Amino acid sequence: MDNGSPRVSVIIPVYNTEKYLRKCLDSIIDQSFDDYEIICVDDGATDGSSDILAEYKARTPNMLVIRQENQGLSGARNTGIEAARGEYICFIDSDDFVKRGYIGGLLSAAICENADIAIGRYYIRLPSGAVFPAPGVKLHSADAKDALQRTRTYMNPYAWCKVYKRSLFMDTGIRYPKMKYEDLSTFIRLLGSAKKVAVTDKYLYYYNRRPGSITAGRDVRGIEDMVASLVAVRCFLEEKGDYERFRRSYHYFLSFMMATLINRLCFRTYYHSGMRVMMRSRSNLAKTVRFLKSDKIVYDRLTPEMQEKIDRING
Predict the structure, then answer these.
(1) How confident is the model at residue 227 (pLDDT cuts 50, 70, 90)?
(2) Residues 125, 44 contacting (CB under 8 angstroms)
(3) Fewer Cβ neighbours under 10 Å: the N or C end of the chain?
């Protein structure tokens, strides 16, 4: 790139992850690829994370630390996007870590296929320390529309373990909505705006499934946000005139995500609300699935309040 800009900007949102942060930073500093910048967004951390960032910043020339009042994971990612100078962007959560070939492997896949997005595979690391590969299908490249049709075989919708052309964010104005499960709708919108997607079968990322994380959570707001994200995906496809084309993929994706939620409702306890709320939530989720699988335009049947929320999510 011009003006000495790095090839890749690595964005790491940081909030109260002092237990995991050193391992995360060590893994990204020790990359085999060297033309990159590290942008750590300190999202108002109240533990020792800020001190750790200052320590690493003092000895890492290609590292930028931005401190802001707490805006949540989405706000921190969006701040990183605005600060990024690289031709490509990738994300790492500060409680996770990556292999030495993380940046190079993803970038190589993107360049070889002239892709707007490159996707890698990842390991899941449990609190016990056990590590196992997340399931996935070995694919190599596809037209982005084809990728949308085969979402069920690709892809976790998480922001991480991917590299994106920065122009995909800057030219479209796509940003992460300030809610839980913000990745769901954002990834589909990015896919819908891309021309080509590359997929590598290399395992490059370690996702720490830890107590207290968003994806391990079970609060009512989290359920509402996941449902809103799924509604937003349906509305996005309707707006683009693509829903009929991607109906089967969307139904599979919807059923998978709802099954995940119901599984959590069945096997985890709502300490603050008990079994009655749990069963009511399961009933509401079933109604939501039927609503989102219907043939009629979903957006037109939403309440004005929900329409406003969906408009915010979809930009």
Answers:
(1) confident
(2) no
(3) N
Domain residue limits at 197? 2-208
Please list, residue by residue across 71-106, b when 16 or more beta carbons sit within 10 angstroms of its beta carbon and e when fewer do: bbbbbbbbbbbeebbbbbbbbbbbbbbbbebbbbbb
Last residue in a domain, options 208, 240, 255: 208
Task: Please report, rounded to a whole number, the percentage of residues in the chain having pLDDT higher than 90.
Answer: 46
Number of structural domains the chain divides into: 2
What does DSSP assign to residue 167?
Answer: H
193 or 85, greater pLDDT: 85
Q: Which contacts (CB < 8 Å, 24+ apart) does range 52-59 have? A: 52/18, 52/21, 52/22, 52/25, 53/14, 53/21, 56/25, 56/29
Q: What is the predicted pLDDT for the residue at 263?
A: 59
Backbone angles phi, psi at 132, to 5 degrees: -145, 150
SS3 (DSSP) at 255: helix
